[in-house]
Design brief:
By secondary structure, the protein is an alpha/beta fold. It has one domain. 27% of the residues lie in helices and 18% in strands. The strands form four sheets. Strands 6-5-8-7-9-10-11-15 form an eight-stranded mixed beta sheet, with helices on both faces. The chain has a three-stranded antiparallel beta sheet with strand order 12-13-14, with helices on one face. A hairpin with a 6-residue loop joins strand 2 and strand 3. The longest helix is centred in the first third of the chain and has 17 residues.
C-alpha cells in the first residue's frame, strides 16, 4: 500500500487520476477513477468571527466575520451542523488561527463534515517569563476581564447561528475561552441556543458551577474576600452559573494535574485582589475597590472586573476538577486517565500540540459527546 502526500501550488479546481505503469514507463497496469478536487487556503474553509483583537479596547458586542463563509450543501444533513470554537489566553493572532485550524482539521479527520467557526476575542498576549512575572504584569487578570466582557458578543453570535441551524449548534472552548463561553450561555437566560457545550481545561472557578466542589486553602495569601462564585452575589445565594440554560448538554474535559490551571490559575486567584494595580478589599465593610481605594466596585455592575482582579476563587478550576455537579453532572472526561494528558505546560494545550495520531481518540470523544458520532 502506498501513502501519497501532495501540496497545491495555488488555489483552483482539478481532477486527480492515479495511474500505475510498468518499469518501462509505457505499459499502464491500472488507473483509478477520477477524484475531483477543489483546492483552497484552509482559512477559506471555516468561518472566523471576531469581537476585536486589541486587548486595550473593550470587545464589541456584535461579532464580525473575517472570512467569507465556505459554501456547504444544505441538502446533506451532516453539513447543517455548526461547531463554534473559542480560544484561550495569551495567543497572538496567528496562534488563534493555527489553534482553530488544528481543531478544524482533526475534527474533519474524525468524520465531521459540518460547519466550523472560530470565535476570536481580544486576549492579552506576548507575556513570557516566570509565573511571578506573569502575575505581576496584570496580563492574566486583564485577559480574564476581556474574556468576561466578550461573552455578550458570543451570545449574540450563538443566537444568530441557532436561528440558522436550530438545534445543531455546538460550542467548545479551551482554557480561559470557557469564561467567554460560560458567560455567553448564562446571558442567554432561559433560551437554549447550543446543543452541547464542551469545556476543555476550563480556566474558570468550579464553584461558579458547583459550590460543593472542594474548597482550597489560600494560606498566607488569603484576603478573606467572599466566595461570590459559590454564592452570587449575596451570602446564601446560588452559585454564579446556577441553572444556566444556554446549552442542552454540558461536558467537562478536565485534567487534575493540568500545569496552567494548577501552577498559574490557582496562584493568580491567591494573589487577588491585585494590589499592585490598585485593587483592594475591606473585610469590615465587604467592599471591593479599584484606583487604590478611591473607586468602589459593586455587584452586579462591576462583576467582571471584580471576578478578574479582586475576588479569590476558593476552589480548583473547572478544568482541573472531577465530579462537578449541576449542569455538568455525569458528563465528565478525565484527560489524564483517558488520553494521557500530563502535568507539563504543553499538556494544557495537548489536543493542539501533539500529533493527530496520538490525539485522534480525544477528538473522536469530542464528537461522541456532542452526539455527532456513534461511540
Amino acid at each position: 500500500m502506498a501513502h501519497l502526500l501532495f501540496d497545491a501550488v495555488s488555489r483552483g479546481s482539478g481532477q486527480l487520476v492515479v495511474s500505475l505503469y510498468k518499469s518501462d514507463g509505457v505499459t499502464k497496469l491500472s488507473e483509478s477513477a477520477p477524484l475531483y478536487l477543489k483546492l483552497q487556503d484552509v482559512k477559506e474553509m471555516y468561518e472566523r468571527w471576531t469581537v476585536g483583537s486589541d486587548p486595550t479596547v473593550a470587545p464589541a458586542t456584535t461579532a464580525s466575520m473575517v472570512t467569507t463563509p465556505y459554501q456547504y450543501d444544505t441538502t446533506i444533513t451532516a453539513e447543517n451542523n455548526y461547531i463554534m470554537f473559542v480560544h484561550g489566553w495569551n495567543l497572538a493572532q496567528w496562534e488563534k488561527d493555527t489553534t482553530a485550524e488544528t481543531a478544524f482539521k482533526r475534527l474533519y479527520w474524525q468524520g465531521y463534515k459540518g460547519h466550523f467557526g472560530a470565535f476570536q476575542w481580544p486576549t492579552t498576549y506576548g507575556i513570557t517569563g516566570t509565573i511571578s512575572v506573569l502575575l505581576n504584569s496584570g496580563s492574566f487578570d486583564n485577559g480574564e476581564w476581556q474574556a468576561w466582557k466578550s461573552g455578550t458578543g458570543l451570545m449574540n453570535l450563538l443566537t444568530s447561528l441557532n436561528s440558522t441551524y436550530p438545534g445543531n449548534v455546538y460550542l467548545m472552548a479551551h482554557s480561559m475561552g470557557n469564561v467567554v463561553a460560560g458567560e455567553a450561555l448564562r446571558l442567554e437566560g432561559s433560551s437554549q441556543v447550543v446543543n452541547t457545550y464542551v469545556a476543555m481545561q476550563g480556566a474558570v472557578a468550579s464553584h461558579a458551577y458547583d459550590p460543593n466542589t472542594p474548597t482550597r486553602s489560600l494560606g498566607i495569601f488569603d484576603d478573606n474576600t467572599p466566595d461570590r462564585y459559590a454564592e452570587y452575589y449575596t451570602s446564601g445565594a446560588p452559585c454564579y452559573f446556577n441553572g444556566v440554560h444556554g446549552a442542552g448538554t454540558f461536558v467537562n474535559f478536565y485534567n487534575p494535574v493540568d500545569w496552567a490551571l494548577v501552577q498559574l490559575w490557582e496562584p493568580d486567584q491567591n494573589t487577588k485582589p491585585d494590589s499592585l494595580r490598585g485593587y483592594g478589599f475591606v473585610q469590615d465593610t465587604g467592599q471591593f475597590f479599584t484606583d487604590y481605594y478611591n473607586t468602589e466596585l459593586v455587584f452586579p455592575f462591576d462583576r467582571y472586573e471584580i471576578f478578574a482582579a479582586c475576588d479569590e476563587a476558593r476552589c480548583h478550576a473547572l478544568g482541573a476538577q472531577a465530579d462537578v455537579s449541576g449542569v455538568f453532572d455525569n458528563q465528565q472526561v478525565d484527560l489524564e486517565a483517558a488520553f494521557g494528558f500530563g502535568n507539563q505546560h504543553k499538556d494544557h494545550s495537548g489536543e493542539f500540540n501533539s500529533d493527530n495520531i496520538n490525539r485522534a481518540p480525544f477528538w473522536n470523544t469530542v464528537l461522541v459527546k456532542c452526539k455527532l458520532k456513534s461511540p
